[in-house]
Design brief:
By secondary structure, the protein is of the alpha+beta class. It has three domains: about 180 residues, Dipeptide-binding Protein, domain 1 (Alpha-Beta Complex), CATH 3.90.76; about 130 residues, Periplasmic binding protein-like II (D-Maltodextrin-Binding Protein, domain 2); about 210 residues, Dipeptide-binding Protein, domain 3. Helix content is about 25%, strand content about 20%. It has a six-stranded mixed β-sheet. Helix 9 packs antiparallel against helix 11 and helix 15 runs antiparallel to helix 16.
């Protein structure tokens, strides 16, 4: 059965998520992600060289940043996937699913014949183990920071608190049936099962947790070729016994780990990389040299630059427990002080737009007027700082000093523009560049003031932006924001089966957070990648995931 809601193209993506009646009982078809048809010719073979920064993890247990997702997406097939071209949620490891009338019990039928890279069978128990591994406080040093995807599964709280060794709501009536009971109705649950952390995990992962994280054994179209070499490379090769819907054509992928996009782009121009990010300010130049993709997401020889709109919001995270930033008026003022349009015009050459909502355009419920303090208003920013007790001295300085964490792989051009905007209202901000893994530690520990972040949809619904980033206690809520009003409204929304009402409640939750400003939405940014002429049908989808199984040697 097809998804309901307004249809979209790859450039406009999702205008409405499917309601309960539309998503119950869908059957698998097509490819992952964009679902682009292979009409570009090409042949099998070849090893693609793909640029990434050093990931924090490539194991589903710890996947929380995009470099790791790019790799693990090739290694693992979760139950479902959203296809941005067919406009449907489709099966990947699941061949079908259905719910009861109240949407609090879901039953997934697993495809038969699927194999892990070690030759063992993928069964319902593989998913049960993978999900419970996320919630097990003894699996790693603590429950996974991305275990929140399973928050509504019965037994979740007991398991993460060490009171149970299994998720009570996950059972396997037979080898190919996975039954999931939720603590409340959740009509969007099949979307959740599309995210990489909810992939199946083989029994071999139980033997040595640390070793598995360096060379994960998955069930996707590619498998590890050796182990991950930190700051050097991650090599994959085609999994010839793959029995899913996304058989790969290329022999392998070399994920080449580079210091930053500028370094990688030089390697690309020298012919040493096949897929690379475009450095800030060089998009038009690159389009002129390599041609522009016809749909924004698919590269073919002569049409090699990808600039399609994606489900992504760049934002800044405050530490709301910081002595200065605990003051909501300071947080509001710092957002008002930023000239987002100038950033877009100066640096992004038409591939970014100012963010007026943490939820990006293309997801139903987005409203760019929701976060009122994202509008550029220097005078109002100064007034709020006065009201917060930070009066300017004769030189204009207000005595506010902020340390701003950013990734060492990021260009500082955008951040420098922000710093100048803050200086104009009397706030002194200093950039502190570090490895992203170090940033994650500081976020978790709460030992930071302000940090640069970005969020791409794991699944294309409002909930995937609101719950991970701002719900109390969730691992990706690095601001350590806690609002009983926000949590209650989001809980109410998630329990609501009627789609229109659910989105209305989600929007109300969004508005609560917009007033509290625990984070600063900055821009909604599109793709900025370029591909070599060595390969064709190279796809990066609207969730920024590379669909490398679709690529062919040109």
């Amino acid at each position: 059965m097809g998804a309901s809601g307004t249809s979209f193209t790859r450039r406009t993506f999702l205008k409405g998520s499917a309601g309960l009646a539309a998503i119950a009982g869908l059957t698998a078809c097509g490819k992952k992600g964009t679902g682009a048809s292979d009409s570009t010719g090409g042949s099998t073979g070849g090893t693609m060289k793909y640029y990434i920064s050093n990931p924090t993890s490539i194991d589903p247990y710890d996947i929380e940043e995009f470099n790791g997702v790019a790799v693990s997406y090739q290694l693992f097939d979760p139950l479902t996937i959203f296809n941005f071209s067919t406009e449907k949620l489709e099966g990947l490891s699941a061949e079908s699913w259905e719910s009861n009338d109240s949407a609090d019990t879901w039953t997934f039928k697993i495809r038969k014949g699927l194999k892990f890279h070690d030759g063992t069978d993928v069964t319902a128990k593989s998913f049960k183990y993978g999900w419970e591994r996320l919630c097990n406080p003894k699996a790693g040093s603590a429950p996974s920071v991305v275990s929140y995807h399973l928050q509504l599964v019965k037994g979740y709280d007991d398991m993460i608190n060490g009171k149970a060794t299994e998720l009570a709501g996950v059972t396997c009536p037979d080898d190919y049936t996975l039954k999931v009971e939720l603590s409340a109705p959740y009509a969007d649950f099949p979307y959740v099962t599309s995210c990489t952390p909810l992939s199946p995990i083989p029994d071999c992962a139980k033997k040595d947790f640390a070793a598995y994280t360096k060379a994960p054994v998955g069930n996707g179209p590619f498998k590890m070729d050796g182990t991950w070499k930190d700051d050097q490379y991650i090599n994959l090769k085609r999994f010839d016994d793959y029995a899913g819907p996304n058989t790969a054509s290329v022999d392998g992928v070399n994920f080449s780990i580079q210091k930053d996009a500028d370094t990688a782009f030089r390697e690309f121009e020298a012919g040493n990389l096949d897929v690379c990010d475009i450095p800030t300010g060089r998009i038009k130049e690159t389009e002129g040299s390599y041609g522009t993709s016809k749909d924004g997401f698919t590269a073919t020889p002569g049409n090699q630059t990808l600039t399609g709109e994606v489900l992504y919001t760049e934002y800044l995270a405050y530490n709301v427990n910081d002595e200065v930033l605990s003051n909501v008026k300071v947080r509001q003022a710092m957002s008002l002080a930023l000239n987002r349009q100038k950033i877009c015009d100066t640096l992004y050459e038409g591939t970014a737009k100012p963010a007026g909502d943490i939820v990006p355009p293309g997801i139903r419920g987005n409203d760019e007027s929701t976060w009122a303090y994202t509008a550029y208003d220097k005078d109002k920013a100064e007034k709020l700082l006065d009201e917060a007790g930070y009066k300017a001295d004769s030189s204009g300085d207000r005595g506010i000093k902020i340390d701003f964490m950013v990734s060492s792989s990021s260009s500082t051009d955008e951040f420098t523009m922000m710093i100048n905007d803050w200086k104009a209202v009397g706030i002194t901000v200093t950039i502190d560049q570090m490895e992203y893994a170090s940033m994650l530690t500081k976020y978790t520990d709460g030992t930071f003031q302000l940090g640069s972040r970005g969020w791409t949809a794991d699944y294309p619904i409002m909930d995937n932006f609101l719950q991970p980033l701002m719900y109390t206690g969730v691992g990706d809520n690095v601001s350590h924001y806690s609002s009983s009003k926000f949590d209650a409204k989001l809980d109410e929304a998630r329990k609501t089966v009627d789609e229109d009402k659910r989105i209305e409640l989600m929007h109300e939750a969004d508005a609560i957070a917009a007033e509290d400003m625990p984070i600063i939405p900055i821009i909604h940014k599109g793709l900025s990648k370029v591909c070599s002429k060595n390969f064709t049908n190279v796809i990066v989808d609207a969730a920024r995931c590379p669909e490398l199984h679709s690529a062919k040697k040109a």
